[in-house]
Every structure is written in C-alpha cells, then in structure tokens.
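Researcher: Next sequence.
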Amino acid sequence: MKDGLSGNNIVDPEVRKGLDPVREEVVRFFRDHPFLLVSEGRLAVLLCRPVEMVTAAVNALEGEGFLFRKGEETLLCVEGCLVEAKPT
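Model: Next structure:
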C-alpha cells in the first residue's frame, strides 16, 4: 500500500488500520453520490479527513478498479462497481 503522496510503502500496521475506515467512507461517499465529480482534495474536505489518507484510500480503490479519473484530478466511480465493493 502506498501513502499516496511520496509513494513510500506504508508498513506500520497502525497506519494501515487507520486507512480502512477512510476507504469505507470513500466507498460510502461514491455509493451515495455516484454522479458527483470530485477531486481528492475536495473529497478530503467533504469527509473531514487528511488528504494523505483519502489519497491512499482512493489509490487503493483505483487499483481495484472501483474508481477512475476523468482528466487528471476528477474522480469518478465505475457504475455498479461500488455497489459490490466491500469495505475492509
């Protein structure tokens, strides 16, 4: 898992544990707002979470094929995929 900013691997289990709730919040956000286009920075503000944690969660969801980008900054959910996504 990457931290989303520096590209460093996150190996600390406490840090990993802290990312799981954020990933779940990102999944819930896109389930509730499937047509809202949002940047990671704006998503962090909406979720009241640090940008680094939201970025890491988004990167994980992108890697799993649940999110993709339109342009360089805007995040979109893949229709139907987040309905099947299971928060870890």
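Model: Residues 13-84 form a domain with the Arc Repressor Mutant, subunit A fold (CATH 1.10.10.10). Residues 24 and 64 are 14 Å apart (CA to CA).
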